[in-house]
Amino acid sequence: MRELNKEWAVFTAIEPLRLYGVDVTPEMLANMLQAQGGVFALISAEGGGIFENIGRYTDKGGMEIYLNGFSGDRVCVDRKSSGSIVIERPIINILAPCQPIVVADMFSDRQKAGRGLLSRILFVKCLSRVGSRKPTGQPMNERVKTNYHTLCGNVLNGLDKGDLVFDDDAFAEYCNFFNEIEQKLTPDTGELEFMSEWAGKLPGSMARLAGLIHCIAAFEQGKNPLTTKISKADTQNAITLAKYFLAHAKSIYTERVEPEELVHAKYLWRRMLKLGDGASKSQIYHATKNYKKGAFILDDSLSMLIEHGYIAATEHYISGKPKTVYRINELAKFSTFGTFTPENATNCTKCTLNVGSEITVSALVGDSDNPFTD
């Protein structure tokens, strides 16, 4: 009996293999990860349900497991009802075809957008085929079906954990791609600055794609991918895929970014905060003259900031001659379009430059507390 007790103390139940789920709560996802060795997928033909589950439990910390499942960071879940779960290197895959309204809802969700869930997703924007569809579709090619089933079998039979490593030429390709993307993230002037959170993770996503391509090639040949390094060709193919996903993400982000005139006004606001209160138009011009030439119109952006109460144009006399200077609204002086909201401001107008939420600033001429008066 003593020997049986010892065996029971180290006994680990063997769970049936489960590759993916559909309607899984974050708490249950932790259980599934533990049962399946830290690897699990969420796959649904109607992906809206998956993302609804993510958002539904964010007040209980449910977002972390999805974020950690992307980066492989340790997951620790302690619940009174189910005990403690510790997963060292979780891997969560999500495949979720969904309607455009689902994507739009995710972009408007502050939790999903603000905490980085959207920047971890590789988007594919499909064109509608309505109007050109046929009543019957082509069956899958038998050779493709057979090869796919064989590949899946090889993957499951050879499933093991370990580190994938670039060879020297492949790593050089990765570095070149990283530098190419990084240059396009430069604040105010970078081509991808408007979607920097997503694009900033693209080199890492490309490395994951290179690892997948390497593994598929090895399993197709019946080899262990951990015994060889990721090649230059694998990495180049991954870069091609990454640029494909980038094109789709740019299309999706462009539909949801702020109007260009608002982007220009925000840029001007940041520059004026650096210049300080009382800057002249000449000083502002020289501070912004290299910003998006041909697209940025200084007078339009100044007018927008004035209209919404961030600055005011006042006459300043030098040697008897009037000179226009721009005063910064003290109530908005430390605002970055969303971080500042005075709670006790009275007789105020709404500053509508901030998309998604409102900043309240005082900008009433004649107000005894007018921040533009000396």
List keywords for this structure.
alpha/beta, 374 residues, three-stranded antiparallel beta sheet, three-stranded parallel beta sheet
Which structural class is indicated by helix and strand composition?
Answer: alpha/beta
What spatial form do the alpha-carbon principal axes imply? elongated
Rounded to the nearest angstrom, the radius of gyration is 28 Å
Strand content: 5-15%
Low-confidence stretches: 335-374
Quick one: how many beta strands? 10
The level of helicity is 40-55%
Query: How many domains make up the 3D coordinates?
Result: 3
Give the topology, please.
Blueprint: H1 2-9, E1 20-21, H2 26-35, E2 39-43, H3 48-56, H4 64-71, E3 75-79, E4 83-87, E5 91-95, H5 100-108, H6 110-114, H7 142-157, H8 168-183, H9 196-200, H10 202-220, H11 232-256, H12 260-275, E6 279-280, H13 281-288, H14 298-307, E7 311-318, E8 321-328, E9 349-351, E10 359-361
Parallel strand pairs: 1-2, 2-5
Antiparallel strand pairs: 3-4, 6-8, 7-8, 9-10
Helix pairs in contact: 8-10, 8-11, 10-11, 12-13, 12-14
What's this, in brief?
With 374 residues, the protein is an alpha/beta fold. Helix content is 44%, strand content 12%.
